[in-house]
Design a protein that fits this description.
- The protein has 225 residues and is mainly β.
- Helix content is 4%, strand content 65%.
- It is globular and about 45 Å long.
- The chain starts with a strand and ends with a helix.
Length: 225
């Protein structure tokens, strides 16, 4: 599966805007908070780079506001970019107990290392079945490189880039429900993803990187709750 479909010519290398894989051999937590007056809970991404033989893997455990595991994913670094190799979601039943659901990766383009100045589309496509109620879900996400911007994090301004998003989420349980999201992602140099914004049916959901620290700091946060 190619990383993108495009008919342009000029290429630009943007790998420095992804998460800093080399430094993340020492794992860190990225804390993302909602910009909508705390109407949505924060989430926390525990990230670590691991080198196995000649391969570089980037792994992320995502935790919710109550330190519950939401997701685990593993990406592989390739010359063309980062490819999603495995993804597990942890979905709650009616009693709140979470079970592991393996996700089928149809097109795992997580982040391209090269973009073109034309309208190249980077395709991401996954699907999974809820083990509890057999509901089938799918996400098709198209990214298009938007250009350069800047981002301020903890008082320092970083060069950044942004992507335009168009995302379709499908739910099938005795009938289909499809929701379209339009959005934007911002990646800052030597930081990675710093902003996620999606709009659907007039509603805006936006998260931004607010802090980063080690796992002990996260554990201390939850002990204090």
């Amino acid at each position: 599966m190619p990383l993108f479909t495009d008919c342009g010519h000029s290429k630009r290398d943007i790998r420095q805007f992804y998460f800093p894989l080399k430094s993340l051999q020492e794992p860190l937590v990225y804390e993302y908070r909602s910009t909508q007056q705390d109407s949505l809970p924060s989430f926390y991404c525990y990230m670590q780079t691991m080198i196995q033989h000649d391969s570089v893997f980037f792994m992320t455990n995502t935790y919710g506001a109550d330190f519950e595991t939401l997701q685990f994913d593993r990406e592989l670094q390739t010359p063309q970019g980062m490819l999603l190799k495995s993804l597990f979601q942890y979905l709650p039943d009616t009693a709140g107990k979470r079970s592991q659901n393996q996700v089928e990766i149809l097109s795992g383009n997580a982040f391209p290392y090269q973009v073109r100045d034309s309208n190249g589309i980077f395709v991401y496509n996954i699907s999974w079945k809820n083990n509890i109620d057999s509901t089938q879900y799918s996400i098709i996400r198209n990214r298009r490189f938007g250009g350069d911007t800047t981002w301020t994090f903890q008082g320092k301004t970083y060069p950044a880039i942004w992507f335009y998003l168009r995302e379709l989420r499908d739910r099938d349980n005795k009938g289909h429900t499809t929701v379209e999201f339009i959005g934007k992602e911002v990646f800052a140099e030597n930081l990675g993803l710093v902003s996620i914004r999606r709009t659907f049916s007039g509603r805006v959901i936006e998260y931004q990187l607010m802090d980063k620290y080690n796992m002990k700091t996260l554990e201390d946060k939850f002990r204090q709750k």
